[in-house]
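# nightly structure sweep
# worker-07 picked up a monomer target from the shared queue
# config: single-sequence mode, recycle default, output format = structure tokens
# input follows
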Amino acid sequence: MEWLNQTYQLNLTYPTVYHWVHYRLKAKLKVPRPKSAKQEPNAVRRFKKTSPQPC
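# output follows
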């Protein structure tokens, strides 16, 4: 919302922006998935190296 205000001088509320983005533009908020605290960093690298690559 700050970006809209700085760039286009639009003072919009969060619900207004959310409605336009979600319902009119059919977009979704991009939030990273949570990671487990027990996850080993090396296990992720090994998995990426050994998993089959899509064609």
